[in-house]
Amino acid sequence: MLNQLTTPLLALPRLAKRLLAIGVDVVLCALAVWLALCLRLESWVLMHGNQWIAVGLSVAIAIPIFGISGLYRAIFRYAGMAALNAVAKSVFVYGVVYATLLMALALPGVPRTVGILQPLLLLLLVGGSRALGR
Fold this sequence. Notes:
single chain; mainly alpha
């Protein structure tokens, strides 16, 4: 069963695999913002207003940093601790930039603690996705 799912993915051209990885990371950025908001507000929330700006900032900051760091050049099935280390370094740089921007912008409806919670959740989600992809 698992082989039926993985074989078509492994047969994709390199560009398609990169675009798939970028797409997964975009979704994970949005999911991490939503989860951070839910944790901070201690309830399930529907995103609205400035919270979508926090999602847009997350994606606009994370994808270029991940690209520059080489996260989209690696072949996941051969990735190990070195790849997870690269993810951790990239998310750390991302987290500093993201938290700084959220504090500077002080968006109404977006608690400042989201700038701390979201990168931690993103680290777990992106690291987990890379480990699962392996």
